Amino acid sequence: MTEEISDDLLVRHILGETTPAEEQLISQWINESNTNAKKLEQFRFILESSKELAMESPADEEIQWEKFKAKRASNRNSIIVPMNKPYKLWLQIVASIFLICGLATGGYYIFNLNSNIADKLITVTTQNNVLTDTLPDGSTVQLNSHSSINYSNNFKKQRTIKLSGEAFFIVKHNADIPFTVQAANVNIRDIGTSFNVKSKPDYLEVIVETGIVKVSRQAASIVLKRHEMIHLLSTDKNLSKETNSDLLYSYYRNGQFELNNTPLSRIVAVFNEIYGAHIRIEGQDLNNIPLTVTLKKDSLEKMLQILLLTSPELKMKKSGDEIILTK
């Protein structure tokens, strides 16, 4: 197993300042688990957000770093995330931000230290937790683990959110000020609704639970209604919708997987993504086996055992890291 990668090394990797040996180490670390890959994606998202602030701030970075350390030392109600080995280039980017890890929420909130730009950008980030947050306009967002959003502190006048990862939005509708989520070069605009957005490096998924959503990319757009969804690959040129037939997308909100005649192939795909597992179905005739049961989110092993009890025709065997479902 690769040794733990420091935050400092991840930042230098994103900035292109690592050695070939360090790049090889990071590559091995990324390939070890989905969690590691998500952490890198999260760092990249935060760094890009921070760059926007740094470019707008004329303040001397060394002065800002001293302000950061002083503020960190004086804040007794929050856990402050320290920067490992701050150096010139990284300092120019992060010196104007203040990171707070809330004790109650477990999410990171990023604010400007520079009073001249203190109303520019807020970033909320989760690690291994799910976070529910109320936005300034009264809308709510439930942020899945390893996800981030950022938005202007002037949100009530410009309701635009940038998302990396996955989140469920319950929007307080305002026809005069549209609510827009930006993810993977796609705009998702509320027309009075609640919806789930999952943004990954290679695809975007939007599922509408209530109301109507307009999804746009470049000149193309499509309207989604209740129980409709779009699964958009980064290479797709056309927008096409389909019916959403299950509630598996809501597992991180209610802590359970609701299966209602759900095909085994769909369950396996979801488990593989969430747990970073390698489950394979042996035999095409098993793909469409319907399963109906509610699983409380638990270890992968326990949930698979419940599936076996639900469908006695299923058997499970292991081969290395691979889990094989067969007859």
Automatic annotation (TrEMBL):
Span of domain Protein FecR C-terminal: 257-325
Domain of life: Bacteria
Keywords: Membrane, Transmembrane, Transmembrane helix
InterPro entries linked to this entry: FecR, FecR_C, Ferrdict_sens_TM
GO MF annotation: an example: sigma factor antagonist activity
Transmembrane segments: 89-111
Residue span, FecR protein domain: 125-214
One Pfam family from the record: FecR
PANTHER family from the UniProt entry: PERIPLASMIC SIGNAL SENSOR AND SIGMA FACTOR ACTIVATOR FECR-RELATED (PTHR30273), PROTEIN FECR (PTHR30273:SF2)
Identification of the protein by name: FecR family protein
